[in-house]
Design goal:
Elements lengths: L10 E5 L4 E4 L4 E7 L4 H7 L10 E4 L2 E7 L2 E6 L4 H12 L4 E5 L4 E7 L3 H6 L14 E6 L2 E9 L2 E7 L3 H17 L3
Antiparallel strand pairs: 1-2, 2-8, 3-6, 3-7, 4-5, 5-6, 8-11, 9-10, 10-11
Helix pairs in contact: 1-2
Amino acid sequence: MNAPLHSFEPSVLIETAAARVSRAAPGARLSLQARGDLPPLNAALGLDLPTRIGRRARAGALEAICLGPEEWMLHAPEAQAVEILSACAEVYASRPRSLVDVSGRETTFVIDGPRAAELLTLGCARDIDGIAVGEGRRTAFDGVTVILWRDGETSFRMDCWHSFAPHVQHLLEIGCRELAAETI
C-alpha cells in the first residue's frame, strides 16, 4: 500500500470528537549515532544531547530524542539540515560518529484530542500513559516501527517511514471513527 511522496503534504486527515490526526509539514530529520565524549557534538549542535532513552532536548527549533545508548533522532526545520551536518562534520575528525539525513524517508503524524492516548493504544502495545509529557520512545504501531513523541497530555507526534504511512494513516482514521462512535 505505497503512496507517492507528493501525497504526504501537511493536512488534517481526520477530525472527530475523540481525536484529530494531521500530517505535519516536512522537516529535517537526522539520525545520529555517536559514542564516547559528547561535549564536542553538544557544542556543534548547540544543545546537550539527552543520554537517557526517551528523553528529549530542545534548543530553538532543533530537537533531539535519545533512542538508544548511542543513538538520537534530530528534528529541525528543513533549512537547518545543511548547517547541522556542516557543524557536526568538523567534529568527525576527532570524534567518529554517523549523522545521516533521513528526511526523505519519513513522515510525521500529529495526533491530538481528548482520546489521543487511547487511539494510540489501538496499534501500540506500549503503556502510552507511561510516556511522560516531553519524552518519547521508539516503539511499534501495528508492527510498524515508529518514533512516538509526547508533546502534551493529549498531544503526540508519530514518525514513520513513508512506505508505511498509508497503513498507519488508515488505522488511525479507523480508530478515530470507532472511538468517536462509542458512547462513553
